């Protein structure tokens, strides 16, 4: 059994991002994985500050909201992460961006447990769920690139993206490309998907799939 954490980062509690997140959770649960879903907005109430000014006497982050628990007790132990976000100005939601920013407090050298936290951040399976009104393929590339580079930075494997088209609450249910089913499939297969990131000198066979 693998542990999958799904972070839904829309401030709209019953919108399209959480619909995608719940579909992915259903698929992962059906596949036998342990799944947790959190609304980032419930745990992150402040931007990253100057750590030199706001660390407490123990050397830990001094911002008193739910981020510490979310990050240390749920994010670090997870084997895989699915980030769910609406598309805002061709980027991820501010809530999700703040989540990434706040991780710095726990892997900076000034944090007493930075080494252990770095180890926990690394080598995860990562996927992305995006809800957007716009169908233009280039609209979501900024979000994809951010998650791609975060994955590479943490030696993680970015294995899939699902985009659902919608604006009103529940619009993704009517998307003819069936993003809810694709999100469910991503949740079910996130730990089994073929992953490759070739370099020019990578040794590989001429066929991707075994014959």
Overall description:
It is a single chain. This protein has a single domain, classed as Flavodoxin domain (Rossmann fold), CATH 3.40.50.360. The chain is 35% helix and 17% strand. The protein has helices at 16-30, 51-54, 67-75, 94-107, 114-121, 141-153, 179-189; strands at 3-8, 34-39, 80-86, 125-132, 157-165. It has a 5-stranded parallel β-sheet, with helices on both faces. Helix 1 links the parallel strand 1 (3-8) and strand 2 (34-39). Helix 1 crosses helix 7 (179-189). The protein is globular. The protein starts with a strand and ends in a 22-residue tail after the last helix.
Report low-confidence residues grouped into runs of 5 or more. none
**C-alpha geometry:** globular
Structural class: alpha/beta
The CATH topology comes to Rossmann fold
What's the rounded overall pLDDT mean? Answer: 91
Count of discrete structural domains: 1
Order of helices and strands: EHEHHEHHEHEH
Describe the largest sheet: 5 strands, parallel
CATH homologous group name: Flavodoxin domain
| Strands side by side in the biggest sheet | 2-1-3-4-5
């Amino acid at each position: 059994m693998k542990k999958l954490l799904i972070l839904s980062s829309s401030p709209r509690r019953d919108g399209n991002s959480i619909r995608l997140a719940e579909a992915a959770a259903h698929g992962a649960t059906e596949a036998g994985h342990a799944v947790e879903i959190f609304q980032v907005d419930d745990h992150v109430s402040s931007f990253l500050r100057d750590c030199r000014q706001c660390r407490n006497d123990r050397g830990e982050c001094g911002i008193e909201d739910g981020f510490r628990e979310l990050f240390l007790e749920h994010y670090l132990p997870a084997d895989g992460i699915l980030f769910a976000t609406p598309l805002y100005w061709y980027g991820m939601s501010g809530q999700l961006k703040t989540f990434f920013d706040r991780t710095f407090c726990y892997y900076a050298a000034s944090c007493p447990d930075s080494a252990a936290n770095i180890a926990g951040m690394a080598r995860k399976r990562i996927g992305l769920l995006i809800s957007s009104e716009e169908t233009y393929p280039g609209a979501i590339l900024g979000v994809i690139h951010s998650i791609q580079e975060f994955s590479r930075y943490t030696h993680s494997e970015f294995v899939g993206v699902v985009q659902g088209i919608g604006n009103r609450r529940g619009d993704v249910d009517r998307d003819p490309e069936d993003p809810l089913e694709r999100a469910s499939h991503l949740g079910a297969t996130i730990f089994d998907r073929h992953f490759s990131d070739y370099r020019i000198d990578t040794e590989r066979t001429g066929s991707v799939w075994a014959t």
